[in-house]
Amino acid sequence: MDVIKRTLFIIVLLLPIHSANAGQSVAFYYNQIDSVRELINYDRVVVTPSLITDKQIKTLQKAETQVFAYLSVGEYDGEALPKSLTGLSPLINPNWSSHVMDLSATAWQEYLTNQASTLTGRGFDGIFLDTLDSYTLFASSPDETSKQQTALANTLDALHALPAKPLLIFNRGFEILDQIRFKPYALAAESMYNSYDPLADSYQLVPESDRQWLTGKLEEVKKAGVEAIVIDYLPASNRDAQKRAAKRLINEGFTPYISDGLLYEFGVSTIEPIAKRVLGFYDGQFGRMVTSQCHRMMSMPIEYYGYVPECVDIRTANFSTIDISRYAGFFFWLEEASYQQVPSLQSWVNTVIGKRPVLFLNALPTNRAILAKLGIADKGNISGNITQQQGQNWTQQFYPAAYSQFEKHTIWQPTQIGVSSEITFGNEAGQTTTALFKAPWGGAALSPFPVTQLANGRISWSIDPFRLLDNTLKLTKIPAADVTTESGLRILTSHIDGDGFPSKAWFTNKPYTAEVLYENILKQYSLPQTVSVIEGEVGLRGLYPEQSPQLERIAKNIFKLPNVEIASHTFSHPFFWDLNNTSKTKDHLPIPGYTIDYYNEIIGSTEYINTTLSPSTKKVKLILWSGNADPTEEVIAIAEQANLLNVNGGNTYVVRGNKNFTQVSPTIAWYPSGVQVYAPVQNENLYTNLWTEHHDGYSRAVETFEILGTPRRLKSISIYYHMYSGAYPASLNGLKKVYDWAVKQQSTPLYLSEYAQRARALYETGVARTLDGQWQIATTGVASIRLPDSLGYPRGNQFAGWNSGPDGKFMILKQPKTRFTTNGSPDSALQLKSANGKLVNWEVKNNVIDWGVSAHMPLKMVIRGAKSCKRIDGPRLTIKRSAKGQIELASPKTGELKGTIQCQVL
């Protein structure tokens, strides 16, 4: 660069321009990334590129989080230098055992450029350039220092000039700011007030002289219009100190990030991430995670409260790597023998008691020191006729828990003040034992609690699981990510598994069941419907090649309907979905010569439908799991790689007289590589005793929807059945009753794929607090947040509005990151109360609303806070006052509708 240009650049660089990134949060996280559910809380994240997947990068970007890759410029951190770099390292950095590199070496410069190109090719928004000043460890003369600085400036200019134009954050590099041809996106520096010594694994205060020097340097950076980020080191175990440190830095004009010395925890920036995970433990010797009590019983109530349940096998868990700062609580659903067989578990339990709420289910640890710490003692045995003595308010309306008269049972008693006996049992001899404890550290529900094995083989809660969590884990009330609701109204979906497509129905002329549903359901009810077929029942490769032309014609007619989206129900309808299942040759349709192949079941059947049955404007969007609907993570990955959503599984089934929450599944089974979305409610099989009687029994699904809608909205309205429901007049009439009820409800009808997109994002929704007390929601797909009534009413302009539900305020989101406050009373703002479609746009300015809704049914929209409204632009609307301060707008049109209205506010 010539002298004049360089001088002009320096003048521009030093002008006092305020950073465009002021107020944005940032995180530096170098640990393994199993999920991005915490990282999406931040506006920018710096990560180790080898520890994040391309899919996770895209997920973060959906939440409008920029992702920066770590790249060491001055050091190579591998154990041994590659052959191409041999001889280019003058020394080893003893703090990190890394190779300090000669920046003037052409091979090293090419290496850095290639690395940066690879990173931008993966989709990173930018690069965090570390160790910019490592050359000072060996450059002892002015000439060598100048040589290294010139080489460094040239390298940085080359990185900035890459075709992808990556955003570049420097770690220090003060000395070369006047030598580069561009202004960095930001500059970070470590240890202004608090530092970390990696060799001693200790934290200490920074000397005042060092702090003043660094402050002066960063003030120069700020004057140049570059964001100054300060990374200070304090562990998350002292969250209050982290927040104080962050606030101090904000007040001084810096962007803070306060975290542990290795940057392995989620720290505090301008926001504090809320610990949303709740970790449960099960014993894998008794089965897979999805069959464990941890998942089947506890995940649903935990996710209802807005938290993320994680279930870990004690046989494979690495307790030494568990970061308790990311968890709101822990629970253990284990047998006593499991504690005895895994000593490392009990050692770890001893370390977390008192640090996070803990709930023991079924059994307690056997370690005496732990029991003493819990304030619970083993007082011998109790036997005989044991009856409940205390706590009937816990157990009324539930199946009674019973102690066997033919066995001895441990007498459990509290030994510390504050540890209370909530439910006790006793015998004729006056002996008593506690079955439910509540304590400052959490609580315990011991065998025969918290569930009872019934004579019919089913399991029933003996106590209310929601009350149990409220009294033991005491999870903080937070805004809860919600997939039951869209635009303020309960979601309504309908989907059909392809089973029975070729069966003949008991109607005149013996039509196929698929024809009956086509004429009587799919054409009659304009709701969005998701319909699948089994290739082995319909296609030429299947069981009925001679009938295939006629069956394919019916399928084509169904798929042409404008309200039908297409799914595959596999090729041969496997009952089990486990790659290691040794009986897999016997659990599917007996198609001659066929050996089960899960790629063919998913991808092959999809290609058949797309090429043979689908109209040119539609493609298969989902795989609907068949049989036991129990895919392993490896099988789910096949669907993920094919860009197919997946639904089915779970066991949600409740009716009047059987309101058993053990049969209400969580929303999803989450794995790092993919997500299984459970059907919100089970199909007609459970209402008809596996299709053996009461063929009109599916009409009772209305009871299910009502029970799961209030007093807690636990599930969406999900109509789900098979093709064979068109077989009998009774089954068809039962189905019509469900549809007739559903269309009368105030709901937002969605395709199953749209529900699945929201459900799979449920656990990757972030909750944080800004340091000035606002809530922040970050989402990768969820469009609804339930604000518990105890938190009051939401206020702000970053969301579209809210609607009251049975258990809170259902907020309508309009952007990936949303900040709001709460208040004890509602405000009078002009807001959207509800719409029966997906919100596309909502902007309010000077009482003028630019709106957009994608609706599958004729549009209905309700606005709160207005006396009257008039249409300015867009489709013609019927406008009327529906209640005080509420205006209803309607249009007979469907699809993506946009317009502008002007309202007179209250």
UniProtKB/TrEMBL annotation:
Every copy of the Glycoside-hydrolase family GH114 TIM-barrel domain together lies at 53-262
Give the source's domain of life in one word: Bacteria
Q: Which CDD domains match?
A: CE4_PelA_like_C
Enumerate the Pfam families for this protein.
Glyco_hydro_114
The family database entries (InterPro entries) matched by this protein are listed as: Aldolase_TIM, GH, GH114_TIM-barrel, Glyco_hydro/deAcase_b/a-brl, UCP029570
What are the record keywords, sorted? Signal
Q: What residue stretch is flagged as signal peptide?
A: 1-22
PANTHER family per record: PELA
Record's protein name: Endo alpha-1,4 polygalactosaminidase
Provenance organism: Photobacterium pectinilyticum
